[in-house]
């Protein structure tokens, strides 16, 4: 019988883990190596080894209604896209509201997690923590790993010949904090993920020239959607996910290609990806206009460095380079964990439903938030926590090891089909499908068909509106009485921070959303008709 749970890390996942344990009557102890909670969202001027690190200008890439956890909406005066300090504030409000701090031990690093000698019988874990010089060993019934995906930087120094001779400054994107000290410098940024692009737009008005090097192109979206609404309100919907699942893949690729090229033609800017979704899309408003202004110059992959220059695969080079920033991402590593538990296959992964290691007998460990959706990670993390605590309590049964392994194979096929590659992408999921799948495992998935009949306004909102987390509190275990009202008032909270001139409420929003959905809807109708005629 599981009672005590060690939660490792007090980012938003760790907070959700502590909260879920309390909800299920478990006794959590959360260890956080830094001196405060918040994880990624806690900006510091210095970089701490083994902890996440962000730049000062970071703003969330999902909007606040989508990032809110299921029973704690963001304050209505919060802006729709959150600067990092605002999201940190949300973490603190969350911890305060559910009185989580008394379960969290700050400045305490977990240095070792191992199976207890009678693990096969009891499923217990031995956890070694360190606070200053004081080392403690504690036995727990279960462990939740919430240490984040952004702590172990990839430094691909071997893949760039000559980089060791380079005389300028070389840093990883995690060491970049502010555009200070770059005046008049020539900067090369390697890698076109969210960080690489954010840093290039952050720096480009200070530096004498910014070059952004990428081997593959990438889809760039902006935050500003139709009518100035946050783009994910119309993009991250159950309906859209349903259509994507139903229509032939080629058709939905065409639709995605079409909508990403509405803002600017990726082909013209030389960054059209060959495989549309093989890399996560990124969210940045400024990139195209900075390229237009020549402040950022796109470059292909780097082939080699000299003492002062970089050479690219198209034969061109850049001389007198001052700084190279490697925005080359992160490894997923668990340096404190017994090797045999984790056996990361970069194509298949090792986690059933991205949570539980398939080769373990006892269901007493969970990996939280090791995922890459196109959507906010924290909502997924929270539902994973609810799933895991029910697993610990025996309220959720795992299938056999064989079935779990088959599940990994199926998942790999899905990713190969949808993202056109399985390479290094075991963490990727379809946002809505993945959430719904976990939710139905623990009986908290809303029954949309039934709602359409019994509470059509709510049903309509859940089908066509943004896929917000409150819906997973409408029924089943962990039901929250405020869920329905919170869903009904989401547009008020979205509009509130925009009406700061005190003007009366305007309400074009539902229409705008409807308009943006219309093409999908028509497509759906045509498809249904086609199926009917064929059948
Ligand atoms: C630059 C950047 C921008 C991002 N922007 C977005 C965004 O806009 N939207 C979005 O949804 N997601 C974004 N993310 C993803 C982000 O990681 C998640 O949103 C979320 O914050 C993950 O929370 P977490 O708690 O899982 O991990 P983290 O926030 O990384 O927290 C992990 C915590 O564990 C602690 N820890 C690690 N090892 C140990 C140990 N051995 N012992 C004790 N404590 C330990 C760390 O100190 C840290 O506090 C971004 C990530 C980065 C790096
Ligand atoms: C270590 O254990 C002792 C005794 O159980 C306890 O008083 C102390 O708070 C623990 N320290 C940490 C860092 O957990
Ligand atoms: C995407 O659209 C652009 C033009 O809008 C076109 O040139 C390109 O071939 C399309 N790519 C795919 C993969 O459909
Ligand atoms: C936001 O950024 C994080 C971290 O880079 C990424 O994992 C996530 O997919 C992004 N979300 C969207 C909607 O692009």
TrEMBL record:
Q: Which cofactor does it need?
A: FAD
**Record's Gene Ontology CC terms?**
endoplasmic reticulum membrane
> One MF term in GO for this entry?
N,N-dimethylaniline monooxygenase activity
- Membrane-crossing ranges are 511-533
Quote the EC number.
1.-.-.-
Q: Which reaction does it catalyse?
A: hypotaurine + NADPH + O2 + H(+) = taurine + NADP(+) + H2O; hypotaurine + NADH + O2 + H(+) = taurine + NAD(+) + H2O; trimethylamine + NADPH + O2 = trimethylamine N-oxide + NADP(+) + H2O; N,N-dimethylaniline + NADPH + O2 + H(+) = N,N-dimethylaniline N-oxide + NADP(+) + H2O
- Where is this chain's protein located in or outside the cell? Endoplasmic reticulum membrane
The family database entries (InterPro entries) matched by this protein are listed as: FAD/NAD-bd_sf, Flavin_mOase, Flavin_mOase-like, Flavin_mOase_1, FMO-like
Q: Which domain of life is it from?
A: Eukaryota
User: Which Pfam families would you find in this protein's record?
Assistant: FMO-like
The UniProt keyword set, sorted, is: Endoplasmic reticulum, FAD, Flavoprotein, Membrane, Monooxygenase, NADP, Oxidoreductase, Transmembrane, Transmembrane helix
Its record classes its membrane topology as: Single-pass membrane protein
| Similarity comment text for this entry | Belongs to the FMO family.
Its biological purpose is as follows: Broad spectrum monooxygenase that catalyzes the oxygenation of a wide variety of nitrogen- and sulfur-containing compounds including xenobiotics. Catalyzes the S-oxygenation of hypotaurine to produce taurine, an organic osmolyte involved in cell volume regulation as well as a variety of cytoprotective and developmental processes.
For this entry, the protein name equals Flavin-containing monooxygenase
Species classification = Eukaryota, Metazoa, Chordata, Craniata, Vertebrata
């Amino acid at each position: 019988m599981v009672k005590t749970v060690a939660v490792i890390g007090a980012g938003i996942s760790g907070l959700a883990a502590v909260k879920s344990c309390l909800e299920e009557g478990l006794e959590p102890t959360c260890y956080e190596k830094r001196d405060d909670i918040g994880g990624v969202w806690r900006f510091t001027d210095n970089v701490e080894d083994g902890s996440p690190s962000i730049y000062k200008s970071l703003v969330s890439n999902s909007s606040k209604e989508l990032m809110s956890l299921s029973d704690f909406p963001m304050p209505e005066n919060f802006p729709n896209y959150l600067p990092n300090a605002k999201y940190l504030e949300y973490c603190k409000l969350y911890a305060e509201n559910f009185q989580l701090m008394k379960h969290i031990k700050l400045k305490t690093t977990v240095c070792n997690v191992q199976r207890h000698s009678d693990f096969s019988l009891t499923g217990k874990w031995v956890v070694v923590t360190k606070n200053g010089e004081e080392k403690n060993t504690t036995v727990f019934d279960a462990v939740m790993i919430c240490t984040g995906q952004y702590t172990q930087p990839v430094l691909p120094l071997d893949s760039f010949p000559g980089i060791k001779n380079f005389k300028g400054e070389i840093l990883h994107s995690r060491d970049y904090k502010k555009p200070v000290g770059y005046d008049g410098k020539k900067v090369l940024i390697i890698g076109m993920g969210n960080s690489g692009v954010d840093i290039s737009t952050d720096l480009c008005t200070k530096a004498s020239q910014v070059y952004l090097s990428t081997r593959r192109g990438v889809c760039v979206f902006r935050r500003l959607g139709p009518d100035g609404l946050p783009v994910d309100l119309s993009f991250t919907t159950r309906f859209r996910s349903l259509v994507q699942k139903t229509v032939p893949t080629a058709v939905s690729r065409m639709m995605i290609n079409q909508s990403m090229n509405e803002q600017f033609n990726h082909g013209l800017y030389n960054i059209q990806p060959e495989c549309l979704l093989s890399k996560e899309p990124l969210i940045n408003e400024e990139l195209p206009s900075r390229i237009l202004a020549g402040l950022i110059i796109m470059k292909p992959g780097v082939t080699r460095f000299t003492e002062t220059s970089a050479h690219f695969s198209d034969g061109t080079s850049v001389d007198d380079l001052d700084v190279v920033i490697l925005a080359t991402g992160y490894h997923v590593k668990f340096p404190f964990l017994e090797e045999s538990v984790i056996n990361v296959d970069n194509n298949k992964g090792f986690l059933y439903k991205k949570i539980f290691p398939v080769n373990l007998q006892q269901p007493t460990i969970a990996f939280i938030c090791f995922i890459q959706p196109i959507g906010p990670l924290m909502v997924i993390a929270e539902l994973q926590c609810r799933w895991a605590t029910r697993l610990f309590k025996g309220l959720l049964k795992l299938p056999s090891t064989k079935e779990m392994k088959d599940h990994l194979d199926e998942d790999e096929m899905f990713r190969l089909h949808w993202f056109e590659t399985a390479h290094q992408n075991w963490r990727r999921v379809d946002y809505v499908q993945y959430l719904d799948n976990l939710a139905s495992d623990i009986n908290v998935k809303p029954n949309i068909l039934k709602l359409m009949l019994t509470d059509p306004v709510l049903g309509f909102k859940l089908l066509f509106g943004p896929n917000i987390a409150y819906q997973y509190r409408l029924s089943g275990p962990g039901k929250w009485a405020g869920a329905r009202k919170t869903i009904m008032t989401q547009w008020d909270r979205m509009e509130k921070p925009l009406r700061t001139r005190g003007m009366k409420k305007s309400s074009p929003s539902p229409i705008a959303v409807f308009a943006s959905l219309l093409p999908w809807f028509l497509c759906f109708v045509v498809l249904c008709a086609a199926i009917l005629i064929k059948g």
